[in-house]
Amino acid sequence: MMVSFFDQFASPSYLGIPLIALAIVLPWAIYPTPSSRWVSNRLITIQGSLIHRFVSQLMLPLNMGGHKWALLMASLMIFLLTINMLGLLPYTFTPTTQLSLNLGLAVPLWLATVIIGMRNQPTAALGHLLPEGTPILLIPVLIVIETISLFIRPLALGVRLTANLTAGHLLIQLISTAVLVLLPIMPTVAALTATVLFLLTLLEVAVAMIQAYVFVLLLSLYLQENV
Questions:
Q1: How many CB atoms within 10 Å of residue 75?
Q2: How many C-beta neighbours within 10 Å does residue 28 have?
Q3: What does the pLDDT look like over 63-106, one tens digit per residue?
Q4: Cα separations in angstroms, 7 against 4, 26, 101, 200, 217
Q5: How far is CA 1 from CA 94, 174, 177, in A?
Q6: Which Gene Ontology molecular function entries are recorded, alphabetically (predicted)?
Q7: Which of 20, 35, 93, 220 has minimal CB crowding within 10 Å?
């Protein structure tokens, strides 16, 4: 039983070919392509308005140098949000439950922010490793601690997204299995459990949206320190 619970996180394959690439690329086909016309339909108008509002809020604390990341941040937010939401549908696979994918997104982007900081303002970037006013005896210890915390950032980004989505999917599968088992034995308890399952599903929808936003927000904060 425990093995079957974790089977949903195994990357599906067909004829020995992993389908995770298809699961990553396919969500982009859902969104309508913006038109060059002055007048567009309501769906494209709503989509553009939401993206504009999100980007304006995300780029607000950044200077003009950080605004170059606006397209990348908006695309990453839409990508993660779509994959997380589609993963809640039955008989679907969620690529963001794979730690390898999340680290593949977190490490290069975090490294890019660090490289930008070291190139543009190396003194300020290295100054984050040693808070001002630190006693002389604590300087070596604090440098080591801050360096470790700096390198842990991409790992924390990937593990946070993976752990939250994996825990939610496991809870949904556990409670849905309990509903099926209890239905012929205790229908009243099964109905109450199904209500809990419905509320948990709503919570997971919120978690899917929040985790996508938190991932991009933390990247913007790392970028803010280095631009």
A1: 13
A2: 11
A3: 887 888 888 898 899 889 999 988 888 878 888 888 888 999 99
A4: 5, 22, 17, 21, 31
A5: 21, 10, 10
A6: proton-transporting ATP synthase activity, rotational mechanism
A7: 35
CA atoms lying within 13 Å on the CB side of residue 23: 26
8 Å CB contact between 87 and 169: yes
Separation of alpha carbons 157 and 129, rounded Å: 20
The structure tokens listed for 195 are 């209500």
Residue 106 phi, psi (nearest 5): -75, -45
Closest CA to 41 of 53, 32, 28, 50: 32
Q: How far is CA 159 from CA 95, 155, 162, 213, 218, in A?
A: 14, 6, 5, 15, 13
Contact between 85 and 201 under an 8 Å Cβ cutoff? The reply is: no
